[in-house]
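Handoff note, outgoing to incoming analyst
You'll be picking up this chain. Sequence as last confirmed:
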Amino acid sequence: ELAAAPDTRDNIYYAALLPALVRLAITLGQLSIADQFTAGYEPHTPYAHHALVAATAALAEARGDHQTAADTYADAARRWEEFGVTPEHAHALQGHGRCLITLGHPSEAAPILHHARELFDRLSATPALAETDALLQDATALSS
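Most recent structure output, in case you need it:
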């Protein structure tokens, strides 16, 4: 309903929530809903552009296009870092590392995931820390 509601996308909060909404829909197995959040979205601010890049990365990963997702997550991480949006920066780093592991590059993923972990730790984001720790264990095991 949110994605289809008139004038919702012109609200400044839409961009602020877009990456989280897309991640949530994907986690719930609702890829079509995640797609609806981004379909035809026209960002009008730098923040909105960054949010769309982050959402696009998550969608690429969910579709199994891990190379595109890794590249797009790296772009999103750079954007969020420059903008000073720590939670989204951490999520983008985590996604980038996760995709690198999937692509068979665990040694490249490890420092990225360590950086994500540091950010999540500063935020006291316990569930994200646990997920990042699991990814770091995978990266370490695959690098050995």
